[in-house]
Every structure is written in structure tokens, then in C-alpha cells.
Amino acid sequence: MTEQPKKSRSLFPLYILIVLFYMIVAFQVGEDYVLLESISHESDFEVNLNEGVNYKLWIDSPNGPDKINVTISRGSYTAFENTFVLTESGKSYTPHNPEFIVKENGTYHVHAKPLSSGTVYLEIEEYANPDSNN
């Protein structure tokens, strides 16, 4: 009977290490994300984007809508516009993680419109282009 409380106390440091590990990983991974939002209906967001930075757009959720339109614009300038379509396998969307850049620094309007029911995660991420000479 005294064996059970000893086991739980001996695992306590392990629990703390696991939580700390996930907190560190979450902060490191999140540094490159410009936007990370859950979308189930027509939505609008504002993001700050910079000229000369490579961005990648992700749509993720195999149980999401069949199609979703995404537009990223600033005034009359459209930096990105595409309709994502859930593949027949139901595991990913095409186009797969398209890349884009913007012509000038500033606040951009992100408009996402699911064309059927479901929820997706919309992510915009900065990434290092292996072809660039930076």
C-alpha cells in the first residue's frame, strides 16, 4: 500500500521534465509562424508581412471542408490567392504549402472562406528559401 505513493512521487520529476520539454519546443517552433488560426466559417485576419521574406501557407485538417478560398492582399495588391482542394485521399490539400513573397512591408488582409462545412487550420510561416543567397 505504501508502494503506490512512492511510485507517483518518483515519477513527479519526469512529469516536470516532459512539460518543460514541450514548452521549450512550442516556443521554438512558434517563432516562425506569422498566423495560426482555426477556421470553420468565412474569416478575416490582419498580419504584418515583410518584403524580402519567404512565406509558406499551410492548410491542415483532413476533416475540413472540401474547398477553401484564401486571399492575402493589401489595398488593391494581391500577394496570394488560391483555392485549396482536399485531395481524394482526404489527407491533404492541394496546392501543397504554396510559397509567396510580398512587394512591400506592411499589414496585409487575410481572407479565408470555406466552401463547405468543416474546420481547418490556416498557417502562414516564414521560412528560409534554400535557393536564396542570404
What report would you give on this structure?
It is a single chain. The strands form 2 sheets. This protein has a 5-stranded antiparallel beta sheet with strand order 2-8-4-5-6, with no helix packed on it. Strands 1-9-3-7 form a 4-stranded antiparallel beta sheet, with no helix packed on it. It has one helix spanning 3-29, and strands spanning 33-39, 43-49, 54-60, 67-74, 77-86, 93-94, 99-100, 106-114, 120-127. It is globular and about 60 Å long. The chain is α+β, with helices and mostly antiparallel strands and 134 residues long.
**Strands in their spatial order, largest beta sheet:** 2-8-4-5-6
| Helix content bin | 10-25%
Tally of separate domains = 1
Count of individual helical segments: 1
Structural shape: globular
Largest sheet: 5 strands, antiparallel
CATH C-level class: Mainly Beta
Class from helix and strand fractions = alpha+beta
Q: SSE string, helix = H, strand = E?
A: HEEEEEEEEE
Top keywords for this entry?
1 helix; Jelly Rolls; alpha+beta; five-stranded antiparallel beta sheet; four-stranded antiparallel beta sheet; single chain; 45% strand; 9 strands; 134 residues
Sequence-ordered SSE layout with sheet pairings:
Elements: H1 3-29, E1 33-39, E2 43-49, E3 54-60, E4 67-74, E5 77-86, E6 93-94, E7 99-100, E8 106-114, E9 120-127
Antiparallel strand pairs: 1-9, 2-8, 3-7, 3-9, 4-5, 4-8, 5-6
How would you concisely characterize the structure shown here?
The protein has 134 residues and is α+β, with helices and mostly antiparallel strands. It is 20% helix and 45% strand.
